[in-house]
Amino acid sequence: MNTNNTQTLFVKFPHLYRERTAPLESSKMAWGFQCEDGWYKIIYEMSKKIDKISTEGEHAPAISLVSRHKDGTLYVAVSNITPPVADIVTRATEQSRLTCEFCAYTPAFLRTTKGPHKGHIACGRCLSKAAPAPKGKAPKRRTKPRRAPDTIVVKR
Ligand SMILES: [Zn+2]
Q1: How confident is the model at residue 131, as a pLDDT?
Q2: Does any domain span residue 109?
């Protein structure tokens, strides 16, 4: 996840992400969010919900790792977890199953074919954007600006 989004989450939910400064032996949160920015909103909403039902203190839930499951979905480890917090995390994981990890488009699916998106949940557009150009052919470039259509349909 980019620095901007990472900082926003850390600043908005300082207590939930208090392990961000912990040594790596005790928490992996110092690594930041190990996923792409398409899931920022899911993580933000999840954090907001957990924060809302948590009281401050050392026994409050703390997120210690944000990464991906083997099936490509969002993985979140929480210390001091409670059943309602576990529910919120499960819902975020379920949401991530159909949300592009790169651009947040839905529906998106787990990609298993060789390429940069393998093992990630990605939409068709992100997939084709990353696909290498066919051999021997340079990608087509549009040199002229597109002409306006002769008939303009006015939507009412
Ligand atoms: Zn996408």
Answers
A1: 74
A2: no
Cα 16 to chain centroid distance, Å, stands at: 18
Q: Calculate how far, in angstroms, residue 103's C-alpha sits from the geometric centre of ligand 1.
A: 4
User: Is this model's pTM higher than 0.85 or not?
Assistant: no
The answer for residues whose C-beta is within 8 angstroms of residue 24's C-beta and 6 or more apart is 30, 31
- Structural domain including 93 reads 3-97
> What does the pLDDT look like over 94-142, one tens digit per residue?
999 999 999 999 999 999 999 899 999 999 999 998 876 566 555 566 6
Q: How far is the CA of 30 from the centre of ligand 1 (A)?
A: 27
- 117 is a domain residue: no
The strand pairing partners of 67, in sequence order, are 75
- Residue 51, C-beta contacts closer than 8 angstroms, at least 6 positions apart: 13, 15, 16
SS3 label, residue 47: helix
Torsion over CA of 124, 126, 128 and 129, rounded to 10 degrees?
Answer: 160
Query: What's the 95 CA to ligand 1 centre distance in angstroms?
Result: 14
Distance 110 CA to ligand 1 centre (A): 12
